[in-house]
Amino acid sequence: MLKTFDVIVIGAGPGGYIAAIRAAQLGMNVACIDEWKNANGGPAPGGTCTNVGCIPSKALLQSSEHFDQANHHFAEHGISAKDVKMDVAKMLARKDTVVKQNNDGILYLFKKNKVTFFHGRGSFASKSDAGYEVKVSGASEESLVAKQIIVATGSSARALPGVAFDEHNILSNDGALRLGAVPKKLVLIGSGVIGLEMGSVWHRLGAEVTILEGLPTFLGAVDEQIAKEAKKIFDKQGLNIQLGVKVGDIHSSKKGVTVHYTNAKGEPQKWEADKLIVSIGRVPNTSGLNPEAIGLKLDERGAIVVDADCKTHLPGVWAVGDVVRGPMLAHKAEEEGVAVAERIAGQHGHVDFNLVPWVIYTSPEIAWVGRTEQQLKSDGVAYKAGSFPFLANGRARALGDTTGMVKMLADATTDEILGVHIIGPQASELIAEATVAMAFKASAEDIARICHAHPSLSESTKEAALAVDKRTLNF
Ligand code: FAD
Ligand code: NAI
Fold it and tell me: Model pTM?
């Protein structure tokens, strides 16, 4: 029997589950379908982010950071910690507990908000005057219908052509998060966000890490000055990052993996490692969705074609998150989910794509919002830059972490903040002030005149704002 809803959401990652909750808050009768299974075959809503992305990676980054601190930094505080050992199984079990808490939290939120959850694969069956019919195949077989559909099916790791993931030797983000032991030698292909975060985790735990990057520049999307600083720091930490390589044949055997490549000089090279992580970007998930049944258009990357409002060309069909254009970030997916639910309710949902912050959770963290110096130059915008090093910040000295800086870019005429770029401790938290300031179209002068608590890392943001006007007080 057909079950009728106002809205059907396909996918319960950050885009889908948040869209479902917001639509329910706005009084709609909402179904949300997700196929992810936990180890026992039960539902595990939360998508890539919760199961094999943001949450588990940050859990491992935290554990490995503690290990690194105990090994290398406790001594300067007068704490002696001899024979520090890492129990990898326990670290992974903790990570799994954190993931489960998040899965359970979403199931609780669905109940609280009266979202009907279906565990299984959702695929389009047909369209008619009654709306779009979506079949659920999984634990239970159902047929649902609604006039409004939100597709939030996310993305999956991109494999190298002809090199399938076996999650034993050749790992995607999934396998990279469940290595049962620290590999002696680990090679990663791609020095993007996953390459740096997962490379850091296993490097801190003792692996010899090599990262092979195809592009000649390091972190091309990051402000050049910050990227240069980051490269220097990662080199010093011992991450072997090789730029401008061309990856060739890859052989996997019982002993491990051999990666053949040419280096930036065009010389043939070979790297042998116990494990290989391929982190070269992600592809939108539409297989299994049967988009043909309703004539839903995909672009050449396989992403669902939407406009700036996440509308597809079919009336009542929307798509959000990793399965559409734009950065593949959980908070971007969430914002789109909220905006679409509000648009369906007749409200004016809005996402400011210029103000989506980015964070790379390495040590030090790298975070930014708005435009980089190179973008402002190429856009022909006259700007002023001010920066402040954590070296001159009292809280950073007390923490024992003075790497990096806050850099602020402001319009040369109006003083409006156009971009903020941070490398250093707690950059992930500090970037929020910059995002709020930019959302309110603050000037550098505004930040410079706001009282910031002392001693705090956020004083560096205020000092960077002062530096825009060449009047830092502490540097
Ligand atoms: P997803 O989270 O991928 O969720 C899609 C869901 O839909 C999945 O549960 C999937 O099983 C389900 N699904 C797909 N097809 C169907 C179907 N036909 N029927 C039913 N269900 C279906 N982003 C950040 O902002 N910060 C981070 O720190 C961060 N860290 C990351 C670390 C790693 C290792 C990875 C891989 C990604 C990370 N990301 C991070 C990116 C983030 O995970 C994604 O941008 C985010 O999960 C996208 O959300 P989504 O809802 O669009 O899709
Ligand atoms: P990415 O796009 O960040 O980086 C991929 C890197 O691989 C690029 O530097 C690219 O030049 C390189 N590359 C591509 N093909 C290559 C090849 N054949 N040989 C060598 N190098 C090659 O993608 P990544 O790291 O896989 O992450 C996917 C996405 O997941 C990110 O773009 C981001 O949206 C999201 N993510 C976000 C995180 C965060 O917000 N902290 C953490 C992890 C992932």
Answer: 0.98
